[in-house]
Structure to design on (283 residues):
């Protein structure tokens, strides 16, 4: 009898859609509180001010876990044959999340442990891969369906693209141009990729609006916007007195959280669609 009872009422997994979404929201809230409460600079003996090292370590941990979680959730979508937007879409985005995670770990190690701030480091290899994978995944999502936007929707895409480009151009003009070709090329690569992701994210947001997986792609679009905000702030704030941990850098964590939430919402929508299809076939 006990065996029959246990089979009739199997234990529920804690990794449900609602629990994962709540965990991501909780992580974002904790991150925001951490930045707000502890980002103040501490006076040093020489009269300068600096943020505590434990605070900078904490920001790296929040960011790393956000992107690692997003990577796992995206790769779960890749392994699911029912996924609506296509498995290759989520494989590319998942590899992008993994690349950003590895790049962030290397960047944090260079900054915190080695006490170095090079213009170009090994971490840039993984940040470049992140943009390439993310761009490929989002382009695959666009090309996997027919884009039939209204004229006013194309105007929105054009307006956001122009605004993003002008802001990126203005910020770039405020910075000293490096004489090293590699550094200058990387800087412009990041700027161009940020703007392109912004345009693609807006297109996806409008294209999927009201569809079966509209919620998931709203999260992906918000993630791309968050990445743009954090990157633009980082480029604007760079200088001889720059220190990691400024409040707007929280958007890097938000970006990872939102990519993860987009992945889990699409996974849930795909399973629901598969169940409905199976039910109709049995009927």
């Amino acid at each position: 009898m006990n065996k029959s009872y246990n089979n009739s009422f199997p234990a529920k997994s804690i990794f449900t859609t609602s629990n994962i979404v709540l965990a991501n929201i909780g992580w974002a809230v904790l991150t925001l509180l951490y930045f707000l409460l502890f980002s103040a600079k501490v006076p040093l003996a020489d009269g300068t001010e600096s943020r505590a090292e434990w605070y900078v370590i904490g920001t790296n941990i929040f960011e790393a876990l956000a992107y690692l979680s997003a990577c796992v959730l995206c790769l779960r979508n890749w392994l699911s044959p029912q996924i609506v937007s296509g498995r290759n879409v989520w494989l590319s985005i998942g590899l992008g999340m993994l690349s950003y995670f590895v790049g962030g770990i290397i960047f944090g190690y260079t900054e915190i442990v080695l006490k170095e701030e090079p213009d170009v480091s090994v971490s840039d290899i993984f940040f470049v891969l992140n943009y390439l994978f993310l761009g490929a995944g989002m382009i695959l999502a666009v090309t996997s369906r027919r884009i039939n936007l209204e004229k006013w929707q194309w105007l929105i895409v054009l307006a956001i693209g122009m605004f993003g480009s002008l802001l990126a151009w203005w910020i770039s003009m405020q910075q000293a141009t490096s004489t090293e070709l590699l550094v200058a090329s990387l800087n412009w690569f990041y700027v161009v990729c940020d703007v392109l992701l912004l345009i693609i994210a807006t297109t996806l947001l409008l294209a999927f609006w009201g569809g079966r997986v509209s919620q998931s792609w709203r999260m992906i679009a918000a993630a791309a916007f968050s990445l743009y905000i954090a990157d633009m702030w980082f480029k604007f704030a760079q200088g001889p007195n720059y220190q990691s941990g400024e409040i707007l850098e929280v958007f890097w964590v938000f970006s990872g959280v939102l990519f993860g939430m987009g992945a889990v919402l699409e996974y849930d929508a795909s399973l629901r669609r598969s169940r409905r299809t199976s039910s109709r076939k049995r009927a």
About this structure: Strands lie at 42-43, 49-50. The chain has one domain: 21-273. The radius of gyration is 21 Å.
